[in-house]
Design goal:
alpha+beta; binds copper (II) ion; six-stranded mixed sheet; 348 residues; 20 strands
Length: 348
């Protein structure tokens, strides 16, 4: 795509959406718009999603409800994830994560040269119970040195951050540590320059459940991310789970009355903060997921880079509810979606 700054992208989005055109048709849209300024005066006020992104390689809706490779076929899953019980009742969870360079589509016709774990951005969600043993075999098949730096307790040699921790292209390293504390964490590459390695796509969610599980719920993994498509250290596209405006096209289906639990991780680079705002309701928030009692009740939660929170709510009414970053610019550049609540649910 042609280099464009945030403003021009925003303008193009508004114009193109008013005319029902894809982003690829933006030049035509601008040409037509300029000749009829009177009627187009408010066209840019009609923001909304336009065009579709191919979901063949990565589907944000699938990512939403997948962990420990549960979205893969049994045969493929067995290659990347194995679990076995240990004598003390905890589990040994073994993963294979592979760094690979891959071009990904982040908005209709907008491709980003990503660095990925296992070909996807965010990387696969890793989920364990407090006290489990985690063993991650990391293969670097990318073109640059990479690591995996996990948040959580671990010995220094497992930190994936120092010069001697770098895993060179073609090399392998095995990370092993106990899963603690319970909470919502993340993992990411810690090679230098750090901001480049993170924003290129090397990150994922790392959930550690408490030994006494949280109440049953419809659980959703939401990773707030951004993409600097013209390499000016500023994001042009924002999203939850990578694809701009995806959940405007494919609303997150939820049941009225059922507990919904969202694991919200902020890995947006270049911007100091990001946020999530839900329309028409309030939610309980558990910052970093390290408590079982809410740390706040709100309709908007602000997260710094690397911060995360578990948020819980129940939809009272059927229908569509918007959710988005409360930084309006982020929302209009892709970080906006819909819930669609229906039916009724009773806890059993
Ligand atoms: Cu890296």
């Amino acid at each position: 795509m042609h280099p464009m700054n945030r403003r021009s992208l925003l303008k193009v989005t508004g114009l193109a959406s008013a005319l029902g055109l894809s982003w690829l048709g933006r030049r035509t849209a601008q040409a037509q718009g300029s000749g009829a300024y009177g009627t187009m005066e408010h066209a840019a006020h009609r923001s909304g999603p336009i065009g579709r992104t191919s979901l063949d390689a990565f589907n944000p809706s699938t990512f939403l409800r997948a962990w420990n490779f549960s979205d893969r076929s049994p045969a493929e899953r067995g290659r990347y994830y194995r679990e076995s019980a240990r004598p003390d009742g905890s589990m040994l969870r073994e993963y294979e994560l592979v760094a690979v360079d891959r071009e990904i589509e982040i908005a209709p016709g907008v491709f980003f040269p990503a660095w990925t774990y296992n070909g996807q951005v965010p990387g696969p969600t890793i989920r364990a119970t407090e006290g489990d043993r985690i063993r991650v075999t990391f293969l670097n098949q990318g073109s640059h040195p990479h690591t995996i730096h996990f948040h959580g307790w671990h010995p220094p040699e497992m930190d994936g951050s120092l010069p001697e921790h770098q895993v060179m292209p073609g090399a392998k390293f095995v990370y092993e540590f106990d899963a603690e504390p319970f909470g919502l964490h993340l993992y990411h590459c810690h090679a230098v320059p750090l901001k480049r390695h993170i924003h290129k796509g090397l990150y994922g969610a790392f959930i550690i459940d408490p030994k006494t599980p949280r109440p049953p719920a419809d659980e959703l993994v939401m990773v707030m991310n951004g993409f600097d498509t013209n390499f000016d250290a500023d994001n042009e596209v924002y999203a939850v789970n990578t694809v701009a405006h995806h959940f405007m096209h494919d609303p997150v289906k939820v049941d009225v009355g059922r507990l919904v639990r969202m694991y919200v991780v902020n890995v947006t680079e270049f911007d100091l903060i990001n946020s999530i705002h839900l329309h028409g309701m309030f939610f309980d928030a558990y910052r970093t997921g390290t408590t079982l009692t809410p740390t706040e009740t709100s309709d908007t939660l602000m997260l710094c880079q690397g911060e995360r929170a578990i948020i819980e709510t129940r939809f009272r009414y059927p229908g569509k509810f918007m959710f988005h970053a409360h930084q309006s610019e982020f929302a209009e550049l892709g970080w906006m979606g819909l819930f669609e609540a229906s039916g009724t649910h009773r806890d059993t």
